[in-house]
Structures are given as C-alpha cells and as structure tokens.
Amino acid sequence: MTIEEIEHRLLKAEENIEALFKSRNQFNEELATVTTKLDNILVTLGELKASVIQMQSRPGTMWDKLVFALIGAAATAFVSFILK
Length: 84
What we know:
Layout: H1 3-83
C-alpha cells in the first residue's frame, strides 16, 4: 500500500467515525426527549389515577348526603307533627 492509499483510508475512517458519533449523539438527544415525555406521561397517569380514586369514592359520599337529608326531613316532619 502506498502512503496516499493509507491517508485516503485514514480520512475515510475518520469521516465514518465522525458520522457514527453524530448519529450516536442524535440518538442520545432523541432518547432524552422520549425519557422526558415518558416522565410527563407517568406524572399525568398518577394524577388521573388519583382523580379516578376520588371519583370512585364520591358516589358513597352522595349516598351519605342523601340518607342524612332524608333522616333530617323525617325528623323535621316528626317534630312539626308533635308540635302541632
């Protein structure tokens, strides 16, 4: 091999290595973006889960309010009947 061929191969290898590093850096940037998006999705999922749990407990609260209202109305009717 001549020196020119070696220099040419060396330059070509350097270009290939530079392209490899560029693609690797781009991959790392994209991976960081995906990781950030997944973290945001996990936070949102946690908030949604908390909202669903709160919504599931709400019907029980509504029934409790209805029962207390009915008891209050019955007690008021009973007291007003007695006071007549």
